[in-house]
Amino acid sequence: MYQYSQHDRRQLKQRARQFQGQVRRFQRGVLHPDLFQQLRLRNGLYQERHAHMLRVAIPYGVLNSRQLTRLAAIARRFDRGYGHFTTRQNIQFNWPQLDDVPEILEHLAEVGMHAIQTSGSCVRNITADHLAGVAADEIEDPRPWCELIRQWSTLHPEFNWLPRKFKIAVSGAHADRAAVQWHDIGLRIFHDADGHTRFRVYVGGGMGRTPVIGRVIAEALPAADLLGFLQAILRVYNRYGRRDHKYRSRIKILVGDLGLDGFRERVERQWRHMAAAAPAVSEADIARARSFFAVPPVARRGGAAPGAAGLQPIAVADPRFLRWREHNTAAHRDPDYRIVYVSLKAPGRAPGDLDAAQMEQLAALAKTRSAGEIRVSHEQNLALPWVRNADLFAVWHELNRLGLATPNIGTLNDMICCPGLDYCSLANAGTIGIARQINRRLADLERLYDIGEIKLKMSGCMNACGHHHAGHIGILGVDKKGAEWYQITLGGSAENDTRLGARLGPAIAREQVAEVIEIIIDAYLEVRRDGEKFLDTVIRLGVEPFKQKVYAHHQKPRRHPRPLAA
Amino acid sequence: MRIIKNRAVIRDPWRLEEDGGSDAASDARVILPLQRYLKMRHALCQTGRRVGVKLRPEDEVESIAGDLGRIDLIALEFGSFHEGRGYSQAVQLRRRHRYDGEIRALGAHRDNLPLMERCGIDAYQLAEGENIEEALEAFAEITEYYSLSG
Ligand code: SF4
Questions:
Q1: Which fold has domain A416-559?
Q2: Amino acid A311: pLDDT
Q3: Which CATH architecture has domain A297-401?
Q4: A460 lines ligand 1 (CB under 6 A)
């Protein structure tokens, strides 16, 4: 993975000290609270419902054992002993004291981590396919490109005060696992007929209250032009994006106002004007970036794999292990290895939460069994990317002991869930309690396997941090005269077939959410064709049959007094 | 009034004309709002007099692109802490149009000075409430930047 040089580390230290100075000036009353708010956001620090929240970037989802161990130490010392992984490959600490934050940032800097630009109207953490570099279906590893984009966007002087936040995601595989079309800019790497790296560039995607799916602004951008083209897009957005209204200021609105062609025309004009002044990616730049992402040395030795699948006989005999292997591991590009998912969706736990002891022991496990690497997925799970077949049984044992082997990856219970009312000051409704309600009602694993792949995604308000628009089943918390209600959508997707979920009908009362989900599932099981996935059934039939079932059960659906969702 | 120029505090030799005033006084070095400059540009051209021009965030730098050789100073209005358009204006002036006169930020806040400087702004009239001597410290806070980040 990328190794921080003296230079990178010095920058992080300087930034931490700069922030310390800003905290002091704020506390002395010299720095105006409004200004301080913007500065702390650009260092990942929020003021939440109960306390401050610090959001730390995990660029393109890549962590090493040392970093995870450090996150554990921070969770113990400065928080209440746990952290929360988000849908954007960040980790959030919910209880730090303002005075401690500069020190936390210094601790992070020592292991090459930071919270720079994890919030505020600037270019946010660059996200990517969490299986980058190991996926069986990969065309090209996106991480070197992500690292170049990270460097380009970090403390970029021109784009620190954009109209609104700006999110970039990159995928280099046949299957999009980075939700690129739901980002302000989404990049998909492919190779042209001559084998050269090119990017399909999507622009103007985003969730929030006006969900828009990103559209193609460049079909086949040459690799050398990547940063220059991004710069041209950002400049057009910075110059012409609306600044008068918070909900009209994302790039998707500008693209909508100008039309895709109008927007493209401005970007291309800007791009021509930049000409020689545009940042170009040289062969040397990319070669250097790639050198950081070679196959890890421990993994290069090659696996001595006993048995056909490389499994020990004892493993083959254990049905619990086999079930876990089937659901929680994925094909690796090297057949001697498997990718192991670490489920952060154990029933009864808040999705995405991990406590300090788990972090430490997982870091130790990764060190001995996964080349010291851990990945963070936007679906709020972790993954061990370099596990030998021969080690799978031992890894399963250890994960089981840590409560991280619930064999539910890809099932209904593997849901995405934002922090909601329990933590977030913007929330309309709770999410963690609803997750628990659904977990309890649909707890039987065999039943979940029979139901098959369903991506359930839940947000506590219109900001859509839980990606509900993109859920096969989406749940959005709404506030109805002080009570928590839930709007259901069906048929969203964040993958190759990116789609926006359609509203099922009036919002559902808190106590009924799990029941309604079950009704939807039962309706699906009744009508599905052989091997048809839930999403495909919804696409084939639309929401109507589901709607009928749900609202027939709820005799008189009480209508919400105002529109529930955009 | 005191301003920062090239990281030092100096007394400002320029006078900022307000929008809607009449003809510019001919005695001082004056900064004209864009609209007034455009109205007077013909006369200015003939006398060969050199002036400064003030751009609002929504103004296009292209509107004075042909005149840059006669403009000694361009003042960019920032207005608020989170106004971001001036950064792009400055970069466009320096990189695309190769403007090498003074580019001044009006209403600059201490914590934005390093960003402004990296965009090519070299003079700063600080926002109200900022301490000009203390603001100088901002430049040295971060010395390491990625070369790709401009
Ligand atoms: S979706 Fe709303 S409630 Fe959930 S984390 Fe985002 S802002 Fe908070």
A1: Sulfite Reductase Hemoprotein; domain 1 (3.30.413)
A2: 67
A3: 2-Layer Sandwich (3.30)
A4: yes
